[in-house]
Specification:
- A hairpin with a 5-residue loop joins strand 4 (74-82) and strand 5.
- Helix content is 33%, strand content 26%.
- The protein has helices at 25-36, 59-64, 102-115, 166-171, 240-250, 298-318, 326-349, 353-362, 366-378, 386-401; strands spanning 16-21, 41-45, 56-57, 74-82, 88-99, 119-130, 136-142, 150-159, 180-189, 203-207, 218-223, 226-233, 258-267, 280-282.
- By secondary structure, it is of the alpha/beta class.
- The N and C termini lie far apart (67 Å).
- It has ten helices and 14 strands.
């Protein structure tokens, strides 16, 4: 077992105000904001890993986080929901949803954080120890072969190291592991637009079919010259590779050249707490900041990373560890109700093909489409048209009891 002396810093190492573990959207956003605020920031990222992700980002993300549209691989203007029977329902977005490729987007975010002053290092997080004064000493293994492990003192730590977060296991072990969907996708070279409409580079296709996923969905999301095809499930025993192969076949993309394949768990429940009550806070997938039902995570990761950074700034300025609680509190105030509704929707509507068929049929409704896209684009529940909510309630009820028109 390592002693406290083993974790004393080398004389040349600076003491960082904050170390951010994980350089995805959450960690890179936190590191950028903290560096801009003038703090000494270490951003530790493990290279060679690309998260499977459909890549959809709402326009509000571009505005809130100053992301230039040049980072988008494509702009999607419609979505097609596909039922177990093969019935498709097209939904016009009334704007656009941006599409990014995480292989390009995440490095851009890290480079932006580095340009703002964060010290970006590549390596694997090995854990933390405290010295006799109570200071955290972060240990990481540099990516370069033959390099010695580094021990660096930090005043605060942000864990943005994914769904299997080592930071959470180390500092908040009693929380356990939240429910996960395991996601897998294959990036293929996009075909030319199909005359029959089977492939449209400005349309996302979402498959609600039990053979593709018994409890989630499959997707075909265009990224310009490439397309993401994937699925996910929380149930063990299902071969996601085989399910994705079936999806490629259904979508007419079986013969397209595969560029890369990726898989990873996605948390579908926020952790009950995001901090250790002392000097550590988590964000992004590590905090469970992923929307149930849709699995959307990029916007919520960046937002949670920003909140974690602001909470750490307040903690460092005041010395009051209670400030760390503000990250989760503010996130749940803004998005907790939406997450609750989406969780209920996934639990109910995704449970079998009979209900999935009804769910897709409901998506034909103009009120459903309007409220869905306004909420998605602005990340807020729509309140201005209460009668639309009432109409949707009674239409849903009609579908459930079988009296809705076919």
């Amino acid at each position: 077992m390592k002693t406290e002396q083993d974790f004393r810093p080398a004389p040349q190492e600076p003491v960082y105000d904050v170390a951010v573990v994980g350089g995805g959207p959450a960690g890179a956003t936190a590191a950028h904001d903290l560096a801009v605020a003038g703090l000494r920031v270490l951003l530790l990222d493990r290279p060679g890993r690309i998260k499977p992700c459909g890549g959809a980002v709402p326009p509000i993300l571009l505005r809130e986080f100053d992301v230039p549209e040049e980072q988008l691989e494509a702009r999607v203007t419609s979505a097609r929901m596909i039922a177990p029977s093969g019935m498709g329902v097209d939904m016009e977005i009334g704007g656009f949803v941006g599409m990014v490729d995480r292989a390009d987007f995440d490095p851009w975010l890290r480079e932006r954080a580095e340009s703002a002053g964060a010290d970006l290092r590549q390596g694997m997080y090995m854990g933390c120890k405290r010295d006799r004064a109570g200071t955290l000493h972060l240990k990481f293994r540099p990516h370069e072969k033959g390099s010695d492990d580094q021990h660096i003192p930090v005043r605060a730590l942000i864990g943005a190291d994914g769904a299997n977060s080592k930071v959470v296991r180390e500092f908040m072990p009693r929380l356990g592991r939240p429910k996960h969907v395991y996601a897998y996708h294959e990036i293929v070279k996009s075909p030319e637009p199909a005359e029959d409409g089977s492939f449209d580079p400005e349309r996302c296709d979402v498959y609600y079919q039990g053979e593709i996923s018994p409890d989630f969905y499959g997707w075909v999301f265009p990224h310009g010259e490439k397309t993401s095809i994937g699925t996910g499930t929380a149930k063990k025993g299902l071969s996601l590779k085989q399910a994705t192969g079936k999806l490629r076949d259904n979508a007419g993309l079986k013969e397209r050249e595969t560029v890369r394949c990726e898989g990873a768990p996605l948390p579908l429940r926020t952790l009950k707490r995001w901090d250790n009550g002392r000097d550590v806070v988590v964000a992004g997938d590590a905090a469970g900041a992923v929307a149930p039902s849709s699995g959307e995570g990029i916007y919520y990761a960046m937002y949670s990373g920003r909140l974690a950074g602001e909470a750490v700034q307040e903690y460092l300025a005041t010395g009051n560890a209670k400030a760390l609680k503000s990250a989760r509190k503010r996130f749940m105030k803004d998005h907790g109700r939406v997450f609750m509704i989406l969780g209920i929707m996934q639990y109910f509507w995704y449970s079998n093909d009979r209900l999935r068929e009804k769910f897709v049929k409901i998506c034909k409704d103009p009120d459903v489409q309007k409220l869905t896209w306004e909420a998605y684009m602005n990340k807020k529940l729509v309140k201005r048209d209460p009668m639309a909510h009432i109409r949707i309630f009674f239409k849903d009820l009609a579908h459930l009891v079988g009296i809705a028109p076919r």
